[in-house]
Structure formats: C-alpha cells, structure tokens
C-alpha cells in the first residue's frame, strides 16, 4: 500500500513525519511506500528577499526522507507548484495511494472560519481516505496529540453505504487496533435505517464482526445533533482516531460547510480518518 504524506515544512508537518510511533502504526496497516508531497503556493517564488526557500526545502525533505527510510519504508518526494489540496489529490490519484495523511494544528476560532485551510479543502474534495493527524497547538516545538494512530478507534455510522465502506477499513486496521467504540446518532432529519429496524441490533452485529477480528468493542446509540453527539462520544471514549465516512450524495452536499464529516475534521480533539464514497 502507498500513502501520500503532505508537508508544508512547518513544525506541525515535521511532528507527523518524525513520530516513530505513528510510522510504526502505518507499517502495521500495510503501508510500504510513502510519498512526501510539498506544494509551493503560486505566490512564492525563488529569490524572494530574506528567505532561501529552495535550500530550506531540500534540507528538510532530505531529513524527512532519511527518517522514513530508516523505518523500512520506500520513499519518494514530490515538489510541485499550485493549489495545495488539488495537487495533493492529483498525486494521490496518479500513484494509486490508499491513504492521504496531513498534519493539522486542530481547532481554533480562526480555523473554524477560514474555509481555505488545506485539511478542510482535502476533506471536501479527496477521493482517497484522508487521515488528519492532530498536532499540538500554541507551541514552537509541537508533537502529535495521539502517539498511536489506530490503537483506540471511534467509529461513527449512520448505516449508509458510505459508512459501510468506512467500516471495512477495520480489516486493514486489525493489526493496529485493540479497542473500538461504535456510535450511531438518531435524528429526525436522517433516521439512517428503514422503519422497524433496530440500530442497537445493527451495532451489535458490527461489534461482533470486530470481536472476531480480535478488537475489543463497545457500542451505543445516541440522540441529538450528529456532530455534537459524535464529538461528545469522542470526549468520553478518548480514541486515538475517529473513523467516519463522507457521504458525498452530490457535489453540492460535499461543499456544504455544515456537513457532519467536515465538522468532525474541524472540531475533533484527536485524529480523524475520513473515508469518501467509492472506497470499497
């Protein structure tokens, strides 16, 4: 399996790449080849006064490549120019990546308003599973907030086809995941199941599947606003990563700022693994 790891050469990106535990977790789920991608914005060019971008970039990528290679991965580097999320998606498609990884400093009042953040734009447009690796905020030398990427998983489901596809990721995660908590949020706007079917029973069936994989599993049905209730479950269970599907019923739906998956990307305390449609 191949993964794209997007880096802007910031301290946050460095924390994602240089975490030994995170690299070990990627190895456990079958990642063998990592492609480091750096996108140079169109308004940044060589020779800008005061900063030697090219020298800094080459030095950082060389260091990152050595760290990842030393952990047994094959590594390729890509330096491209353009709009970050479009170029990252393009490379992921070209190489046939199974996963795109990006570090994020996490929620803040400003980030909740800024629509142009790379992580948010990727969550809207990616056709590959996206892992948002949460990094410490407000420190000059940040570290990842969750050392183990997949050890404790929170899985949020509305029983849609896309949620089912997201659940299938547990077959990849079984060698890295020890515990899982499944949650379904009932809401009048989106009942999720045909009338007469029991969400508790459906969750119990999913839990039994994970138990067969050797993953200790609990589950619950909640009621209320989906985003708020999923985040409340995250606060209680304290997972290393929340796994959620992005419905993508239509192009318009994917662009709506109020979508549950995008809300989780922005507001979650820990990592988020977002699985878009068509990933079966």
TrEMBL record:
A Pfam family matched in the record: Usp
Annotated signal sequence range: none
CDD domains, alphabetized: USP-like (cd00293)
Domain UspA as annotated: residue spans: 3-132, 150-276
InterPro entries for this protein: Rossmann-like_a/b/a_fold, Universal_stress_UspA, UspA
Family: Belongs to the universal stress protein A family.
Protein name: Universal stress protein
């Amino acid at each position: 399996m191949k993964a794209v790891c997007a880096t802007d050469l910031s301290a946050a990106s460095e924390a994602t790449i240089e975490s030994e535990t995170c690299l070990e977790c990627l190895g456990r789920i079958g990642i063998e080849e990592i492609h480091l991608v750096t996108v140079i914005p169109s308004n940044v060019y060589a020779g800008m006064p005061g900063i030697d971008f090219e020298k800094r970039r080459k030095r950082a990528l060389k260091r990152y490549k050595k760290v990842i290679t030393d952990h047994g991965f094959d590594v390729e580097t890509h330096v491209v120019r353009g709009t970050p999320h479009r170029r990252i998606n393009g490379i992921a498609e070209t190489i046939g990546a199974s996963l795109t990884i990006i570090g994020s400093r996490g929620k803040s009042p400003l980030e909740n308003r800024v629509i142009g953040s790379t992580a948010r734009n990727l969550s809207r447009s990616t056709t590959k599973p996206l892992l948002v690796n949460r990094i410490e905020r407000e420190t000059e030398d940040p570290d990842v907030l969750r050392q183990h990427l997949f050890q404790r998983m929170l899985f949020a489901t509305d029983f849609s086809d896309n949620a089912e596809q997201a659940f299938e990721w547990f077959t990849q995660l079984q060698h890295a995941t020890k515990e899982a908590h499944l949650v379904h949020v009932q809401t009048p706007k989106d009942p999720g199941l045909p009338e007469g079917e029991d969400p508790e029973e459906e969750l119990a069936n999913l839990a039994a599947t994970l138990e067969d994989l050797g993953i200790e599993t609990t589950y619950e049905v909640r009621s209320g606003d989906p985003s708020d209730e999923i985040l409340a479950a995250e606060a209680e269970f304290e997972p290393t990563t929340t796994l959620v599907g992005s419905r993508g019923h239509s192009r318009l739906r994917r662009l709506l700022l109020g979508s549950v998956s995008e809300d989780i990307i922005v507001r979650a305390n820990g990592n988020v693994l977002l699985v878009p449609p068509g990933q079966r």
